[in-house]
Specification:
By secondary structure, the chain is mainly α. It contains 8 helices and no strands.
Amino acid sequence: MPHPDTPDDADTAFTADDTDTARRLIAEYRALPADSDRKRAIIAELDADVTAQPFLVSVVADAGEYDLARVECATLLRLWPPADPGLAHRAGRALLAALNDPEEDLVRQYAVLALGPYASDPAVTEALTAAARADEDPLVQVGARSVLEAVGKA
């Protein structure tokens, strides 16, 4: 279910300037060193720009990406879930991949919190239920319980 503040694609008129800005920011992001904090800032600048959502999904899914950029992507995908069903499915699966990344506790904690809008996918609900019961990270457990309760699956 989309966030209540998420505009419908039909109601959102993006100008060429919006698209150009997103393209410029994404190009800048890709040119930066792997651990540059500017990456996190660029993701934040993309905020509710639906044209950048495929990029956000790719960043959160990539275990080799800068962890704080992945955290920022997870946050934006929680606040502005994609309206396109295919992209929403990919976003949910990318967040699941992040949740299953044993090397990144902070990314996992944000990914679990971002899964609420994607809980209609049985794989997401199953992962949230498993995390709520037995995740090694108590913050992931609490986050999973909170999300399940919020979406009425607790």
